[in-house]
Design a protein that fits this description.
The protein has 721 residues and is of the alpha+beta class.
Length: 721
């Protein structure tokens, strides 16, 4: 621990060593009995996460939360106890990165969506939640080779779809590029290997060219008396791969495999270097980008230009200040708003997209729709346009005047009838381009948004405002339309409307989906999307639940009637008792003996003989005075086809379709499942215990062998008492 604290203080001597030591000791205590898949003590993971956070320059509370980020999720430690010991800031951060554990979801996708929703809510209160989560994901990726193939694939896809784009949004490119390359290497190992080999083959040749260009730039800047730092950087493999895939280019056609980066003292020097570069080499048209005058939403600033060298080969040059470079590497973490206790209103503006995401996601009750919309929002490129007053507006690429209008104000969007782009009238579905001046045309006679506007709008914020307006203004009509759409869908699927679409079922579905009334649910259905089918499936499920409940009630009623009849003496079947005939016997539920097992009889008081396996723990632990009740018994060979209950347990990595595969295996072997019990622990391991109707021990061995072949099953055994 001393070395760990010492390494943190080396990065920042102002860290509170006592506070961090306290957090370390608590984390070590809580995770003492836990180990990673690699066999290392679990504490190595939070320590590695904190090292990553410390390199970003994060504060004491963030480091403490990094040490304790798994404590609430993976131990008995309560959030309330954490808040008492480490304060509300640390508790808020840990709670933000803690997954939802107690709720039951229909699928992993639903669970993932709800966890992402929770993280976004926490992010809106404190962006450090996401920074901790990104550091956690980065270290898990660095040690991903200890997971199984299915887990590796799942984590890597999730990283490319969610976490790497989030890192990009925050401008933490050091995280983004490493995450992408690790995910790419594991998802496409052949493509990664081929690309790595191809890039390495040309590395020396490129290196010589870069060194020559750097020498020439140094001569120019020395003459201009500009203080500078010049480096060459190789492009990351996933970035190269994406360009080759999306632009249908060969490796030789990628201009910026290697970029030259020039770091200077001021913005004035940036443009001075740019002028010198363009004077010496010819720039390629369309390849110059001024991110200083027009920064990216994540605060990234730099000048990018691609020029043709003396040999005819193109190369990219990036020019920025030292401060810009720090932001380019660490994004929002580079100007941490909690440093020195200062909060910045500017940071709140830069993170407005998080709040916007929270706004539109409130209207998306379907988890899959939420995730798809989030992915679209994360991956969208940006377009920059101007208001007539010259203010810059940032929108996703493909946005229309409708998106622009609703971003200004809901009232402007609702009355929009068109727009002027650079002084010329355009329709509301016109695709906006960079640098255009947009003037929205409104009319007091406008009827307002229609459902068709949802197809025109690009931004989730605009779509959400359109939906809200439609709900408010056209609720009766929309409700009727939604009801009609649901009934049509039910007819297509062959459902009896009077049975499946009862008001009580629709009411339950509305409540489960987060709607205050049936009318609100119908209105939401009228807007289209997967909600209609989701509602229909839920109603059908409720109908089948009630049907099954009725059948069980009938069965219980019949059982009560049978119980009222005079009881008959149980017959001896399948077992003979040595020296005794016509004796009442029963098979012990604690060990469920079957033909082939060595068995023993236990004489009970008034209930005949109880048949046990000889290795039954209850028999082996009998007191001496009770052993007098044991008698010899044997299987009756004439009763070979009788079915007996046997209990089998299997351990498997939790996945969709696991029980279905188990049921299919039983069906193949013509084995009846009489009961099943399953539970999944925090590590994702499912324990499934089945009671099966079998004939003998050979039958059990066959079943065990078949179960062991099921995907993700790690162990299978016959349950012993």
């Amino acid at each position: 621990m001393e070395d760990f604290i010492r390494s943190l203080l080396a990065l920042n001597p102002n860290y509170d060593a006592d506070f961090l030591e306290k957090a370390y000791r608590k984390a070590e205590q809580l995770h003492r009995q836990q180990f990673r898949r690699s066999g290392e003590p679990y504490i190595t993971h939070p320590v590695a996460v904190v090292n990553i956070l410390a390199e970003l320059g994060m504060d004491d509370h963030t480091l403490a939360a990094g040490l304790l980020h798994d404590a609430v999720e993976d131990t008995e430690y309560k959030l309330s106890d954490l808040e008492k010991e480490f304060g509300p800031q640390v508790a808020l951060l840990v709670d933000g990165v803690t997954k939802l554990g107690s709720l039951v979801y229909e699928s992993r996708e639903d669970r993932q969506a709800e966890n992402i929703r929770k993280m976004f809510l926490a992010m809106s209160k404190d962006i450090r939640v996401l920074i901790i989560k990104l550091a956690d994901r980065l270290h898990n990726l660095r040690t991903i080779n200890y997971m199984n193939d299915e887990q590796i694939r799942e984590k890597c896809i999730e990283t490319l779809e969610i976490y790497a784009p989030l890192a990009s949004r925050l401008g933490i490119y050091a995280f983004k590029f490493e995450m992408e390359d690790i995910a790419f290497k594991n998802l496409e190992p052949e493509a990664y290997g081929e690309l790595e080999a191809a890039v390495s083959m040309r590395q020396e040749e490129r290196g010589q060219a870069i060194r020559r260009v750097i020498g020439e730039i140094k001569e120019m800047l020395d003459e201009l008396e500009i203080h500078y730092e010049i480096t060459g950087r190789s492009k990351h493999y996933y970035s190269i791969y994406k360009k080759m895939q999306f632009q249908q280019k060969q490796l030789d056609e990628i201009f910026d495999l290697t970029a030259i980066r020039v770091i200077v003292e001021s913005i004035k020097d940036c443009y001075g270097v740019l002028g010198a570069v363009h004077t010496k080499w010819k720039p390629i048209p369309g390849r110059f980008k001024d991110y200083i005058a027009m920064p990216k939403p994540n605060r990234y600033q730099s000048l990018h230009t691609t020029v043709i060298g003396q040999t005819g080969n193109p190369f990219e040059i990036q020019i920025r200040t030292a401060e810009m470079h720090r932001i380019a590497e660490y994004g929002i973490a580079a100007h941490w708003k909690y440093k020195e206790g200062i909060q910045s209103d500017n940071e709140e503006v830069k993170l407005a997209w998080i709040r916007q995401t929270l706004e539109w996601q409130q209207d998306l009750n379907d988890p899959k729709e939420f995730m798809e919309t989030l992915k679209l929002d994360l991956f969208s490129n940006q377009v920059f346009v101007f208001t007539p007053k010259g203010d810059v507006m940032e929108l996703p690429a493909g946005s229309t005047p409708l998106d622009f209008a609703f971003k200004i104000h809901t009232a402007v969007g609702a009355k929009c009838v068109g727009a002027k782009v650079n002084g010329k009238m355009v329709p509301i579905d016109y695709i906006l381009q960079n640098g255009e001046i947009i003037d929205i045309v409104t009319s007091s006679n406008s009827k307002g948004p229609s459902i068709d506007w949802l197809k025109i709008a690009k931004t989730n914020s605009a779509k959400n405002k359109i939906r809200q307006w439609l709900k408010k203004e056209n609720k009766p009509q929309s409700s009727d339309k939604g009801k009609e759409m649901l009934e049509k869908a039910a007819r297509r699927k062959g459902y009896d409307l009077q049975l499946v679409l009862k008001n009580q079922y629709i009411g339950r579905a509305a409540k489960a989906l987060g709607y205050s009334s049936i009318e609100d649910l119908y209105t939401a259905i009228s807007y289209g999307g997967p909600l209609m089918n989701r509602t229909l499936l839920m109603c059908a499920g409720f109908y089948h639940e009630e049907k099954q409940a009725d059948l069980k009630r009938k069965e219980k009623k019949e059982e009560k009637l049978k119980a009222a009849e005079p009881k008959r003496r149980e017959h001896t079947k399948g077992v003979t008792v040595k020296g005794v005939g016509d004796l009442l016997i029963r098979f012990a539920k604690c060990c469920n003996p079957v033909p082939g097992d060595d068995i023993i009889g236990y004489t009970t008081k008034g209930r005949g003989v109880s048949i046990h396996r000889k290795d039954c723990i209850n028999m082996l632990s009998l007191p001496e005075h009770e052993q007098m009740r044991l008698i010899e018994v044997a299987w009756d060979a004439s009763e070979a086809n009788i079915a007996y209950d046997a209990e089998i347990s299997l351990l498997a990595e939790d996945r969709k379709g696991l029980f279905s595969d188990v049921s299919k295996a039983c069906e193949e072997m013509d084995v009846n499942i009489t009961s099943v019990n399953a539970k999944t622990d925090k590590s994702g391991i499912t324990t499934m215990t089945l009671t099966l109707a079998i004939t003998n021990t050979a039958h059990i061995i066959k079943i065990l062998n078949r179960f062991s072949q099921i995907r993700s099953v790690v162990d299978v055994y016959r349950t012993n008492s």
